[in-house]
Amino acid sequence: MLYELVRPLLFRLDPERAHRQTMHALELAHRIGLTRLIGHRTPASPRTVMGLEFPNPVGLAAGLDKNGEHVDALSELGFGFIEIGTVTPRPQPGNPPPRMFRLAKARAIINRMGFNNGGVERLLLNVSRAHYRGILGINIGKNFDTPLERAAEDYVFCMRQVYLSASYIAVNISSPNTADLRQLQQAGELDRLLGALTVERAKLVDRHGKRVPLAVKIAPDLTAADIARMAALFVAHGIDAVIATNTTVAREGVEGLRDAQQNGGLSGAPLKVRATETVRQLAATLAGRLPIIAAGGILSGTDAQEKMAAGASLVQLYSGLVYEGPALVGEVASALT
Predict the structure, then answer these.
(1) What is the pLDDT along the chain (337 residues), one digit of tens a residue?
(2) Where are the domains of the chain?
(3) Half-sphere exposure of residue 75, counting CA atoms within 13 Å on the CB side?
């Protein structure tokens, strides 16, 4: 109810500024104990996925807290897990603003942020200061100026750095906002990247006596043949989960709306059908060999139920929170209980 009153004021602001103001307000609410009142409404519904025990199947998608600055505050909203990032080896500013656009009539967002973040050292410092002891995913990527042929070096570096701080590591190869990044989804590039990551993880397991699961985040703009090929590589390399999906470069459902043709990835309600179909195709191809974490177009408990019916084991929220507010966490968790 409170968010319904505040949302019109936030929507008068530039979306990126509104995001900063919201996170500032959330942090303040956390410090005076208000966020706990919302979190207590989230029912327990434990799930075991990737060998991890999730208190409920509703997670925060990467992108909202890129630097891990608000983990404690976000965790009190009732999420079963938090994913932070995408983080890169070195700090980078991302693409020039304006780089985020609200399409309110369609309950959608277009962003071309470009992995803006403070770098992996800053993220790890923030994580070390947090009191949260729940499941924390850390989403990793490459710096924009790292050549594609050296991309694996960036991913391996980030994995090595975050390994002991992460419950699982998400490998982002599907953002449309870093030039050529999605080429890493192609057969040869993907095989080489997954090979480098799993070889390095084996070394880290030996060194630390801890096996951290790896999940790969894919695009919704894939053919059935692409999905089948990628699924086979995930299984062959011992990847632990697939996150489906990232944002789309398609513009179905927003035609004719202001800013609909802005460059960037589209998220929110118009992504739902495309993302759910990707989950369904993945589930059919994988046949239970590894779990799917569903994201994209979840703005209600019913949307989340559709993702689970398509074959997902967990779900993640982001754009839905912009339009529905923090109560969406409890609604989705209740629907999946």
Answers:
(1) 678 899 999 999 999 999 999 999 999 999 998 887 766 678 899 999 999 999 999 999 999 999 999 999 999 999 999 999 999 999 999 999 999 999 999 999 999 999 999 999 999 999 999 999 999 999 999 999 999 999 999 999 999 999 999 999 999 999 999 999 999 999 999 999 999 999 999 999 999 999 999 999 999 999 999 999 999 999 999 999 999 999 999 999 999 999 999 999 999 999 999 999 999 999 999 999 999 999 999 999 999 999 999 999 999 999 999 999 999 999 999 999 9
(2) 2-335
(3) 21
* Beta-ladder partners of 107: none
- Quick check: pTM over 0.85? yes
Lateral strand order in the sheet of 265-268: 100-103, 108-111, 265-268
CA–CA separation, 304 and 179 (whole Å): 31
* 75, 165, 174, 175: the active-site residue: 175
**Integer Cα distance of 274 and 254 in angstroms:** 14
Q: How far apart are CA 287 and CA 119, in angstroms?
A: 37
Q: Distances in Å between the alpha carbon of 24 and those of 11, 303, 306?
A: 16, 29, 33
To the query of whether residue 175 is one of the catalytic residues in this protein, the response is yes
What is the fold, at CATH topology level, of the domain defined by 2-335? TIM Barrel (3.20.20)
Beta carbons within 10 angstroms of residue 258's beta carbon: 12
